[in-house]
Amino acid sequence: MTTTSSLTFQPVLERIAEEIERTPGRGAPADYIPALAACDPRSFGMAVAELDGTVYGVGDWREPFSTQSITKVFTLALDLAREGDELWEHVGREPSGNPFNSLVQLEYENGIPRNPFINAGALVVTDRLHSRTGDAAGELLSFLREESGNPALDFDEEVAASEAAHGDRNAALAHFMAAYGNIDNDIPALLEQYFRQCSIRASCADLALATTFLARHGIRADGTRLLTLSQAKQINAIMLTCGTYDAAGDFAYRVGLPGKSGVGGGIIAVVPGRCTLCVWSPGLDERGNSVAGVAALDRFTTLTGVSVF
Question: pLDDT tens for residues 268-279?
């Protein structure tokens, strides 16, 4: 185990990158989104951001990639900041135990998604944020630009179009929840917002920085408060228990940090009061999580001794 002063982050990252480079079997990119299928599964980047904005990185840590479901964390934070506990009347806080795009559970539970990070739950959160802002995806993009300090962040129109063309399952989820009165906006408008949200491209450096408000217990980069202490705790807790689809238990066991993955191959993780991380490698396991990304975060917490446990 190494010490966890900031001086050790860069050597730790370099050691992890060397180990990952020697590791065979990186999984395969998401093939159901054609725009993602061509990604090189051996690409790898990792960044650590401290609370003062200092960032350390290795590999392809400044290479933008498709954020996908990682954005669900930020949309959740933006909506929770606006409506508070009322949100939890429309989406639960429990692990699903089912695939992230499952329809089955919704019928058992009367159109209330199990948590905000499966697709059904994220659609509800986006719907509610859209009702409050008139442009959920635009609100999210502005937030990410401000928190990352990168005004060049933008939507990837090719990815958004690709998801829309292959979005029948998400449309079914939205229509099913609308039948239970749990969707407020027109379904086509909601789906456009959701697909644009997931299409945002950002690098490991951008996302590590954008996530630091959760490590600062709700305080944004400019010093203003977005979330209460309790709300920041709630989001970190849901990330730990629900952030990696139906592999959240294994992720908590191996990594020991709140995290959120996306099928673009990225994973963000939070060390409350200390730092945030983002790792990217597009090869996925059968549950939709980056193979090299989970391994790298596992090594980070093992080498540094940093975890929430």
Answer: 999 999 999 999
